[in-house]
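User: Can you recover a sequence for this backbone? Please restate the input before giving your answer.

Assistant: Of course. Working from this structure:
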C-alpha cells in the first residue's frame, strides 16, 4: 500500500479519534485506576511461588539471593527446564504476557482502538514472527524440544496456580491463557529481528530524492568505518507526522530488541589472576522491567549462571565451570527486499488477520505471502511507493535453531566445541566472544547468511532471480570469521565486523568509537586487569569521535576562537560525557547547531548526523571546508550555544535516565509508572552507551547499556552481574528496582556457580516437591 493511501486512511481515522478516545477512557477507567500493589518484601514475595505438588520427577531446590536471583538445582534436565519456566513466570509474568502479544501483533488487544497501534499490529502480522515456529519445533533435536516444552509447562503451571496476578493484567486487560512452545519460539524470533531493517525504514522513504544514490552511498560508507575485530586484535596503533509516528513506533520496537553491545575477552597474560577474563554489557531498550533475567541452574546436562532473555529457555551470555561467553549483535544482513511485482497473482497466498481491539469492535486486515516471503508493501507502516510489491526474504523465516545452539554452547568445554554448537544458529546474527579456564580466548560468528555478490548493497530492492541465487547456498557459523588466541592477548567486539569474510556480512555496522576505545584502554593499561578495573571500563564515558572533531576545530581555528567562553570550555574538555561535565554540555551545544546547519545547507537527511557515528560524518564534512567557511559555520553555532549554556550547567542537566514502564504512556495515570529520573553520563557511542536524541533540550536515554557481566575464569564463583532495574517485575517489590543503585555506581552483584558458594550466598532457600503419584 502506498504512503499516499496510507496517509488518507489515517486522516479519515483521525476524524473519529475524539469519539474513540472518549469511549476507551470511559470503558478503561476501572482498569487504569487499579491501585498499585502494596510494598512487599523478599520472603512474602517468594511465598507466591508454588512449591508443592508440582509435575516434577524429583525434588528441586531454588536458592534465592537478596536480589531475588535464583539458582536452580535439579536432578533431571526436565525438572530444571520446568522450574526455570516457573521462575520466569514468577518474576516477569506481566512482561511475558505483553511480549507474547507484541510478538504476535496483538497490541490493540491491550491498547485499544488507536489507529497507529492497529497499523503496528498489521505490520507485525505481515512480518509473521511466528510463521516458522512449527517447523522450528519439528526440526529441533529431542533433547532441545523437551527442554522447551518443559520450560513452557513451568510458565503454564505458574499461570494457573498463582492466586494474585501482576498489576499489568488488570491495567492491560490480560487473561490467563495457556502458552505453547510455538509462542515461546515466536518471542525468540522477535528478539532476532534484523538490525538492517532500521536502516531500511530510514532509506526507503528517501528514494524520491534526486540525490538518493549519494544518500545510499554515504550510508554504506558510514557502515564501513568500523574496523573488524581481527583488525583490532592485529593493530598495534593506538514530513508527515502520522506516518513518522508510525515509523517511529516500528523503529523504536526494533531498537529495543536488537541494537548494540560491547564484549571483551582478555588472555591470562593481561589479568591479575593469570586466567582469562570476560566482560560484556548488552545495549537494548531501557524501559522497565529489564529485558534480561540473571539466573543459574545445575542439572545433569547444564551448569551455568548468566543472563536469560525473558521468556526464552536459554542463556545468551554467561559462565560455566569451563567457559564464559558474551557477544554483540553483528549487524549482519540477514534479510533482502525482493521485487515481486512481476509475479503472477496465482503464486501469492492471501492472509486475513483478525485483529482484536480492546474496548472496540474487532477488525480484519489482509496481507499476502509470496514465494520469497511476506509482502511488506501490504502493511501500512513502511514507505513503499505506489505500485510497488516488495517481499521480505529473512533468515528468521527459515527453521534455524537458536535454542539448541545456545544450550549446546553452554555445554561446551573447548572453543572447538563452542563453535560447533553454533552451527544451527540463525538470527539475530551475533559475534560471540569466548574465554575458557584452559587459557583460550576467541571470537566466533553465529549466523546464517546468504552468499551475496560484493555489490549487493548498491540497491535496496532486488529481483527474485538474483535473490534466489544468493539464498541457494547459505553460509553458517563454520564459514564465518573466527579469531582464536590472537597474539595481542585480547578480543573486542562492539557491533563491528567480526573479521574478514568471503561473503558480505552486512552494510550498517556501528561507528568505530567503542571498539577502538576498548582496544586503546586494553593496550594502555599499566596494571593487570581485575574485576574492578573492568567494571570501571564498562562505565567509561570518553568519546573518541567527539574529541577528534574538537581537535580538528582547535587545530584550524583555536587561536581565532580563543576568548569565546563556550569555545574555551570545549577546548578544555577532557572528552568525557560525565553527568557533571560542563565541557560535555558545551560540546553538545556547539555540535548540534553546527551539524544541523551543515546538513540543512546541503539538503541532506538529518538522520545522517544524528545518532551513533554522527561526529565522524560531521568531521568528514568539516575537512572539506576552507578555513573561512569553517570559521563562519562554527561562530554561528557558538552564538546559538550561549542560550542552553546559560540555562543549564552540566551534561546531566539535560541528559537523564528515566526509570519507567511502558505503562507510563497511559493518559491521566501514567505518572504512577515513572519511578525515577536522574542525571546520567555517557552518549551515543561511549562505552557506557546512553543513546539519545540530538537536542539541547532536556531528554531521556532511549536505549543503551542496561546489563553488565564480568567473569574471572580463575574461580568459578567470580561472576558478577547487574541489571538496570531489578529482577522482579512486581511493582513495589523490594527487588523491583534494587539494582539501580549498583548500576549507577558501576558496581556489580556477585553470582556464584558452585553449589557450596550458592548455598552460602542464599537469602531464601525453597524446596520444590513433586506431586504424589
Amino acid at each position: 500500500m502506498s504512503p499516499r493511501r496510507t496517509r488518507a486512511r489515517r486522516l479519515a481515522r483521525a476524524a473519529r479519534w475524539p469519539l474513540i478516545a472518549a469511549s476507551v477512557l470511559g470503558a478503561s477507567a476501572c482498569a487504569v485506576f487499579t491501585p498499585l500493589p502494596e510494598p512487599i518484601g523478599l520472603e512474602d514475595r517468594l511465598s507466591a511461588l508454588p512449591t508443592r505438588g508440582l509435575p516434577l520427577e524429583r525434588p528441586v531446590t531454588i536458592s534465592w539471593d537478596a536480589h531475588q536471583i535464583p539458582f536452580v538445582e535439579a536432578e533431571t534436565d526436565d525438572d530444571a527446564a520446568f522450574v526455570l519456566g516457573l521462575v520466569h513466570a514468577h518474576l516477569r509474568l506481566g512482561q511475558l504476557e505483553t511480549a507474547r502479544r507484541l510478538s504476535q501483533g496483538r497490541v490493540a488487544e491491550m491498547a485499544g482502538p488507536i489507529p497507529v497501534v492497529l497499523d503496528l499490529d498489521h505490520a507485525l502480522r505481515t512480518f509473521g514472527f511466528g510463521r516458522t515456529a512449527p517447523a522450528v519445533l519439528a526440526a529441533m533435536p529431542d533433547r532441545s524440544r523437551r527442554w522447551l516444552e518443559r520450560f513452557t509447562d513451568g510458565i503454564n503451571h505458574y499461570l494457573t496456580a498463582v492466586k494474585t496476578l501482576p498489576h499489568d493484567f488488570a491495567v492491560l486487560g490480560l487473561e490467563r491463557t495457556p502458552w505453547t512452545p510455538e509462542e515461546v519460539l515466536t518471542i525468540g524470533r522477535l528478539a532476532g529481528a534484523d538490525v538492517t531493517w532500521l536502516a531500511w525504514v530510514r532509506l526507503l522513504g528517501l528514494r524520491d530524492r534526486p540525490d538518493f544514490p549519494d544518500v545510499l552511498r554515504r550510508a554504506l560508507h558510514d557502515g564501513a568505518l568500523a574496523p573488524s575485530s581481527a583488525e583490532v586484535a592485529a593493530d598495534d596503533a593506538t514530513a508527515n507526522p502520522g506516518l513518522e509516528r508510525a515509523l517511529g513506533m516500528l523503529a523504536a520496537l526494533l531498537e529495543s530488541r536488537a541494537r548494540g553491545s560491547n564484549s571483551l575477552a582478555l588472555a591470562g597474560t593481561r589479568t591479575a589472576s593469570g586466567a582469562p577474563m570476560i566482560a560484556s554489557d548488552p545495549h537494548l531498550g531501557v524501559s522497565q522491567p529489564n529485558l534480561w533475567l540473571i539466573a543459574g541452574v545445575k542439572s545433569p546436562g547444564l551448569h551455568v549462571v548468566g543472563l536469560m532473555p525473558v521468556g526464552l529457555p536459554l542463556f545468551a551470555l554467561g559462565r560455566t565451570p569451563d567457559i564464559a561467553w558474551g557477544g554483540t549483535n553483528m549487524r549482519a544482513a540477514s534479510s533482502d527486499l525482493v521485487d515481486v511485482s512481476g509475479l503472477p497473482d496465482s503464486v501469492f497466498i492471501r492472509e486475513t488477520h483478525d485483529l482484536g481491539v480492546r474496548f472496540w469492535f474487532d477488525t480484519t486486515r489482509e496481507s499476502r505471502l509470496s514465494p520469497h516471503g511476506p509482502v511488506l508493501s501490504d502493511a501500512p507502516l513502511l514507505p513503499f511507493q505506489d505500485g510497488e510489491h516488495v517481499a521480505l526474504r529473512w533468515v528468521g523465516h527459515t527453521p534455524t535453531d537458536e535454542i539448541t545452539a545456545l544450550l549446546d554452547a553452554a555445554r561446551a568445554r573447548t572453543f572447538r566445541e563452542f563453535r560447533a554448537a553454533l552451527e544451527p544458529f540463525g538470527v539475530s546474527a551475533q559475534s560471540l566472544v569466548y574465554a575458557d579456564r584452559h587459557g583460550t580466548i576467541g571470537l566466533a560468528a553465529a549466523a546464517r547468511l546468504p552468499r551475496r555478490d560484493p555489490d549487493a548493497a548498491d540497491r535496496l530492492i532486488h529481483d527474485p532471480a538474483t535473490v534466489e541465487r544468493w539464498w541457494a547456498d547459505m553460509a553458517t557459523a563454520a564459514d564465518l570469521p573466527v579469531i582464536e588466541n590472537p597474539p595481542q592477548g585480547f578480543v573486542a567486539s562492539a557491533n563491528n565486523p567480526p573479521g574478514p569474510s568471503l561473503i558480505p556480512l552486512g552494510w550498517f555496522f556501528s561507528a568505530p568509537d567503542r571498539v577502538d576505545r576498548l582496544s586503546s584502554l586494553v593496550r594502555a593499561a599499566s596494571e593487570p586487569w581485575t574485576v574492578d578495573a573492568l567494571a570501571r571500563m564498562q562505565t567509561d564515558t570518553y568519546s573518541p569521535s567527539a574529541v577528534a572533531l574538537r581537535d580538528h576545530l582547535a587545530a584550524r581555528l583555536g587561536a581565532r576562537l580563543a576568548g569565546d567562553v563556550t569555545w574555551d570550555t570545549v577546548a578544555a574538555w577532557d572528552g568525557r560525557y560525565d553527568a557533571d561535565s560542563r565541557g560535555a554540555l558545551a560540546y553538545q551545544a556547539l555540535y548540534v547547531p553546527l551539524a544541523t546547519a551543515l546538513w540543512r545547507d546541503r539538503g541532506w537527511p538529518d538522520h545522517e548526523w544524528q545518532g551513533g557515528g554522527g561526529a565522524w560524518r560531521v568531521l568528514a564534512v568539516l575537512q572539506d571546508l576552507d578555513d573561512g567557511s569553517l570559521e563562519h559555520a562554527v561562530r554561528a553555532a557558538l552564538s546559538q550555544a550561549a542560550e542552553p549554556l546559560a540555562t543549564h550547567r552540566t551534561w546531566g542537566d539535560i541528559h537523564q535516565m528515566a526509570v519507567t514502564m511502558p505503562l507510563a504512556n497511559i493518559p491521566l495515570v501514567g505518572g504512577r509508572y515513572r519511578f525515577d529520573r536522574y542525571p546520567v553520563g555517557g552518549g551515543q557511542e561511549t562505552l557506557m552507551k546512553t543513546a539519545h536524541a540530538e537536542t539541547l533540550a532536556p531528554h531521556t536515554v532511549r536505549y543503551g547499556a542496561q546489563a553488565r557481566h564480568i567473569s574471572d575464569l580463575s574461580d568459578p564463583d567470580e561472576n558478577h552481574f547487574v541489571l538496570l532495574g531489578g529482577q522482579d517485575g512486581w511493582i513495589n517489590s523490594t527487588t523491583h528496582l534494587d539494582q539501580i543503585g549498583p548500576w549507577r555506581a558501576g558496581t556489580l552483584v556477585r553470582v556464584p556457580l558452585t553449589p557450596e558458594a550458592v548455598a552460602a550466598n542464599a537469602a531464601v532457600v525453597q524446596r520444590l516437591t513433586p506431586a504424589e503419584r
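That completes the design. Confidence is low (pLDDT under 50) at residues 1-29, 236-247.
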